[in-house]
Amino acid sequence: MIVSKRALGILSLLMLLLGSCAPVVVQEPTQLTPAEGKGFRLTQAAEVALATGYSTTLRANTTWQLVGTVPQGEVYRTRDQVVTLEGAHIHEGYIVVDQRALVGFYLPVERTFSPVAPAKPLSMEP
Amino acid sequence: MRIRAGTVVAIVASVLLAACATSGPKFSEMTASMSPAKPDMGRIYFYRTTVLGAAVQPGVRLNGEVVGKAVPNGFFYVDSPPGNYQVATETEVERKLTFTLEAGQVRYVRLNISMGFFVGHVYGELVDETKGLKDIADLHYTGEPRTP
Questions:
Q1: Maximal C-alpha separation, chain B
Q2: Which of A20, A82, A110 sits opposite B114 (nearest CB)?
Q3: What is the pTM of this model?
């Protein structure tokens, strides 16, 4: 198939423009029940791929404190780094942990849950 | 009348550079005289480092209210009560940023520019304090005039 340089140029430009239209961050309704008194330290960094095509990294040696529970797991936040979920919009997120694995994020402004699939095992210590 | 190409280039360059020039004191010069937010308030810094797309300087909205402009090499700040916040800019494509603010907390919102269909658009990114302080050090204050 012969494709002209001009057509290739237009196609590249369109792909570049469409690339800027990221999908929205998937959110499910959830209910946070406040809790506290537990925490852990992340011993290894964890890079989490999001369904939007972006990723977010949880840094090693960050300390996480329990802020509540949702049906999907326990919700932790840290003051050691900013965690955001990027898609069509950008949202601050807290992590949701179940059986020592990250299962998703709790979005405190939207009060929703954003799942991560598959769950990401975390290296943690008390 | 004929105008030389060099003259045109010089005029365009001077207009573009004028658009890039940002006046006002640098953050590093202001820190000593800058009072912290009241104890029951938090502070949000907004800043833009790049001169890329300097002609695009949209208003920055915080929960729907315009609080400043995304000026290249500039920063401003807003003291606000604790709560949920949404940042958006008045550009072709609206990309919102949502985050929480607590009393005594300081947040840093970096204003980035990305390609739009017709013009570049500006969006907010929440960054760590370490990065925010590093980025903002040499930027110029573009907010309301301050009295000592």
A1: 65
A2: A20
A3: 0.84
